[in-house]
Amino acid sequence: xxxxxxxxxxxxxxxxxxxxxxxxxxxxxxxxxxxxxxxxxxxxxxxxxxxxxxxxxxxxxxxxxxxxxxxxxxxxxxxxxxxxxxxxxxxxxxxxxxxxxxxxxxxxxxxxxxxxxxxxxxxxxxxxxxxxxxxxxxxxxxxxxxxxxxxxxxxxxxxxxxxxxxxxxxxxxxxxxxxxxxxxxxxxxxxxxxxxxxxxxxxxxxxxxxxxxxxxxxxxxxxxxxxxxxxxxxxxxxxxxxxxxxxxxxxxxxxxxxxxxxxxxxxxxxxxxxxxxxxxxxxxxxxxxxxxxxxxxxxxxxxxxxxxxxxxxxxxxxxxxxxxxxxxxxxxxxxxxxxxxxxxxxxxxxxxxxxxxxxxxxxxxxxxxxxxxxxxxxxxxxxxxxxxxxxxxxxxxxxxxxxxxxxxxxxxxxxxxxxxxxxxxxxxxxxxxxxxxxxxxxxxxxxxxxxxxxxxxxxx
Length: 460
Known about the structure:
Blueprint: E1 5-8, E2 14-17, E3 23-25, H1 33-36, H2 43-49, E4 68-69, H3 71-78, E5 89-93, E6 103-109, E7 116-117, E8 122-127, E9 132-136, E10 141-146, E11 153-155, E12 159-164, H4 175-195, H5 201-207, H6 216-220, H7 236-251, E13 254-262, H8 264-281, H9 288-301, E14 308-310, E15 315-317, E16 324-326, E17 328-330, E18 333-335, E19 338-339, H10 347-363, H11 368-371, E20 376-380, E21 399-403, E22 406-413, E23 416-430, H12 436-451, H13 454-458
Helix pairs in contact: 9-10, 9-12
């Protein structure tokens, strides 16, 4: 049979008609008219232009609701392929967190299912042995599922959460609707105030002094004398810190030596130049830059303190560079970001880098690369008021310098007793590698450079 024409029925489907006027479904199409009509933009002009019956056509062909449409025109519009859309649901996996880290623990779900998030917005926070990791959304959308619970361990590469990118902005009204809603909210209280008559002045005066009952704060605290206990699960970082400290005790033959240092000259130098320093470099002049510079010079004078024992090969590895770890307190625990190549850093560069690491530690944005490596560590317990202490080595390093609080103490200077600002310094070192002579020489060199900052300038 020969196909003469194709008719378009708005309330039916596409049919083909043969010479005898018999209709048959074209291509087995089951599309409903609402789905077909929008995809055939050229049908309506054909319908309006050829709605009149053809001369000599049969009654079936001349129905007013079934105008004929050419096969070529209809096929070019109705059967045009639609573009392929990407999958709306995106699955975000646990990212790589360093060479030595294979898993983390979910500590916070910042965006639970149903929350609309933007691109690069934090959805889940993971905690590893060393640092917390913010896992962010790859695209804007609505979080549909979080594939894990808080305190659950997840491995690198494991699916973590899903985002429906088609639901972007579905939960938020359009700007016009928001503006109208805001106007209605502002207008409603004004209408209510106008409708309610003002109370008498006596009633207002009587109701004013009523304070809010302070019951909620007291309900949180246990009653006096209560013998309650609470159990809190150790974080992965705290577990790792505990394991590393115990490893240091079990591995290294730790010995601590002490030295007092007069901080008067350094404090006077800082007081004299701090304003000019901050004006030129844009960062405050502290004491850490002097101690980092003095420790770097002492490490180059006594290379054994900057070395490490390779237990696998039974060799001593001497480093010709100085990477000093600086202990910084963070909300989740003590972290030790590393100052790289301190032998080439100025006072301003040291202070600026420490300030940057301190801000990142408070924000929880320290990366693993910031804390990797390190050949020597400086810990300043004096900021918390510590007078003296015996620090533990930060493995696999071989030594650690502990700074403490500066206190005015009576000292003998030129045969007279005077009050001087004094600090106790402590050096804990691995006695397997560093002899007592080297340890004491190293610590004494730092003390001399701090007491006479000119030594740092002259490199003596």
